[in-house]
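Subject: Protein entry, chain in single-letter code together with its fold tokens

Category: Structural biology, sequence-to-fold work with a learned token vocabulary.

Notation: Tokens come from a learned vocabulary of local backbone shapes, not from coordinates.

Start of record: The labelled sequence and token lines come straight after this line.
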Amino acid sequence: MDSQPVIAAIRFGLGRRPGDPVPSDPAAWLDSQLLPDLPAPALPEGLPLTMADILAAQVADRQSLRANEGRPNLARIRQGEAAALLADSIGTPYGYRERLVGFWANHFTVSIGKVPYVVGHLVRAAIRPHVAGRFADMLAAVTRHPAMLAYLDNATSTGPDSRMGRRLSRGLNENLAREILELHTVSPAAGYSQADVTSFAKVLTGWSFGPRGDAGGFIFREGAHEPGAKTVMGRSFPEGLEGGMQALAWLGRHPATYRHLATKLVRHFVADDPPPAAVARIQAVLQDTGGDLGAASRALVRLPEAWSPPLTKLRTPNDYVIAVLRAVEAPPDAGERAQGALRYLGQPLWAPPAPNGWPDVGTDWAAPEGMLRRIEWANGISARGSGRDAADLAEAVLGPLCRRETLQAAARAGSAREALTLVLTSPEFHRR
């Protein structure tokens, strides 16, 4: 097997399964995964799907909690959404698209620790449909989503001079405005000030959600909105909902945003220290196409730096767990058990510790304890798949990227289980 198809599946996808076909044109194969209307993960039957259903389930759980009956809907929604995503990741032929979904979900971080009901819906409704579309459209969809409005406390943010602010003495919350500027769009490199953060927070006052909202749950509460025009980074925006939409459209197409996004994309797909020439190329594609993420994703797979040298990125725990389960051809129901593995390895699904998301640099994941836990977990997986020939599996999932030393160590192993563990915990399997 040539190295290019393996690199395509490992670096851009979620890892090879032994039975996966070998594409003759790896770049074209990756491009095909950006087509619209590819199937999404199938959710368990009976799970609330719409935002109205989810918000209604949340109300029911609050009533159950007051009656000391627990939170049955919370567990069902959270576990069902997570298990469906992981099960799909284990078996999907569209690894590049799923990696992009995960990348943008981490870029727009929310956590089940604070918004347990709605993270899965955010990924389904606001991120997945836009991974090959315009960044500004994704930004608007995510910012209006109840998950983000609740996670960053904008749902109750009230303009000091609004009708509600004067009557109830409620205050302004700057969390969402600050994180949009710092993390989601232009980054501090754009040179915005604290006054810009405050002004942008006023632009977003009244942005809330509820059961009577639109199809996504969004509500604009005019009575909580700060009146008058506002200026953000030298740009004036009118009052009302339209002012907020204009601000997001402008930030979503800002040159500093494109530079920030290009740097993060190249860091994720190429190297911890992003090569400047690669960043410049992706930034130019975004600039020339008005933020077309599909165009940027196609350009990524054509960066020479993305193919050589291979295996420059350490797999995060999430990457590693999915790659191992794909390599041993785990069944879909392993998605539910994978949630426990991710917690054990330090990267629980949809539960990053802060709004800047999970780190994307190897040094943050290379601590000895974390690597030892990977070995312990992989050894348990090997026990369930010990009938597999380790050398055959290495050839099928790593091809020429598997080192001779790994094959020699596996051949000398005392058991099939030990041989398989040696392959699954080899330095090359830990990298992508």
